[in-house]
Write a structure and sequence with these properties.
Blueprint lengths: L2 E12 L2 E13 L4 E5 L6 H9 L6 E6 L2 E2 L7 E4 L11 H6 L7 H13 L15 H14 L4 E5 L7 H18 L2 E6 L2 H7 L2 E6 L4 E7 L11 H15 L5 H5 L3
Parallel strand pairs: 3-8, 3-9, 6-7, 7-8
Antiparallel strand pairs: 1-2, 1-4, 4-5, 9-10
Helix pairs in contact: 3-4, 6-7
Bound molecules: adenosine-5'-diphosphate and magnesium ion (MG).
């Protein structure tokens, strides 16, 4: 097993109150899994992903990646935020290299390869202010991949993009997953996105946040959003939401 996620309890202090954000989460992610996690706004998706990334260590539980306990953020967990976090004063290729030198031959070779993979050829010398949202997110993904992480963690990475760009980047991401054969965990509130991308799906519920259903996605790649199989599976996922007592759950999903 590649990644084990055990969170027994995660609480935040809000004013004078303690708010429980997550309880009893147990996930096992295999080396080549693409796990998508879906749930409404506020159910704890970002909190969970930050814990897996080692960006938040103030919780009860244990995260292990290849038998190593995660004690803080590290390069084995690449993290992609909803808003890209590029350095405005660096070009595309410099942003990808970041603290590594492009003068180093091996770095140069890998950066060039990644520029191809994320389809940014010809844009290497542009600055972030000259990029679209989708291009910026591809730079952020290439920067994470250059560090050869064991898992790529993506927090609603395409949420701020238009529908066309979002679909394109979903295909770029699937391409990377298939080429690099690495584990990915992507959280989203978009049901279609979660089904299009993942080989496994975890459905979260709010107050307190927990995973209440895990499913294998029984569709072969490449997937077709309009195929009967896709639509049938989508309906079965939607049905899961009907079982939640909380009406706002479906509203929170924006469907
Ligand atoms: N830094 C924080 N301080 C206090 N409460 C927080 C903090 N971060 C998240 N929360 C609370 O934890 C819950 C889950 O938030 P979050 O993980 O951001 O949800 P999601 O990503 O699913 O929208 C929410 O109730 C939110 O208010
Ligand atoms: Mg979030």
């Amino acid at each position: 097993m590649a990644i084990s996620v055990v969170v027994k309890n995660k609480s935040f202090t809000q004013g004078s109150k303690q708010v429980k954000a997550l309880e009893t989460i147990n996930l096992a992610i295999e080396k080549q899994d693409f796990l998508t996690i879906i749930g409404p706004s506020g159910c704890g998706k970002s909190t969970l992903l930050k814990i897996i990334a080692g960006l938040d260590t103030n919780y009860e539980g244990t995260i292990t990646i290849n038998d190593r306990i995660v004690k803080g953020a590290g390069i084995q967990q690449g993290f992609i935020f909803q808003e890209h976090r590029l350095f405005p004063w660096l070009t595309v290729e410099e942003n990808i290299a970041a603290d590594l030198s492009l003068k180093n031959k091996e770095v140069r070779r890998k950066v060039d390869e990644l520029i191809e993979i994320v389809r940014l050829k010809g844009s290497e010398k542009l600055y972030p202010k000259e990029l679209s949202g989708g291009m910026s997110q591809r730079v952020a993904i290439a920067r994470a991949l250059l560090r050869e992480p064991e898992v790529l963690l993506l927090d609603e990475p395409f949420g701020a993009l238009d529908a066309f760009t979002r679909k394109h980047l979903q295909d770029v991401l699937l391409d990377i997953w298939q080429k690099k054969k690495m584990a990915m965990i992507l959280v989203t509130h978009d049901i279609e996105e979660s089904i299009y991308l993942g080989n496994r799906l975890a459905i979260m519920k709010a107050k307190p946040g927990k995973v209440y259903k895990e499913l294998k996605i029984p569709l072969s790649y490449p997937r077709n959003r309009t195929s009967p199989d896709f639509q049938t599976f989508r309906q079965s996922v939607l049905k899961e939401f009907e079982h939640t007592e909380n009406e706002s759950y479906i509203e929170g999903l924006g469907i």
